[in-house]
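agent: user wants the structure for Transcriptional regulator from Rhizobium tubonense. delegating to structure tool.
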Amino acid sequence: MSHTVREQTKLLSRVRRLKGQMEAVERALEAERPCGEILQLLASIRGALTGLTGEILEDHLEEHVLQAESDTARRQAVSEISDVLKTYLR
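agent: tool returned. relaying tokens verbatim.
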């Protein structure tokens, strides 16, 4: 069973909180709230998204790299992480 399946409830809860935070930004913009408030909301979202990304990345490394069933599977997992990091760091 994949780590995202085992941790599905917790991960989905974090995603739903992120969705709520994005909706708060939308409401703040519609209400013409001060830009400082909006920037604070956005900073919170970035932190939450970074935390979620880190958690899934850590679990991926643990399950698919450290506990890989074969060298081929390990290389595939490392390739996936490499591709994600290239996209993330752009």
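agent: one observation worth passing along. The radius of gyration is 17 Å.
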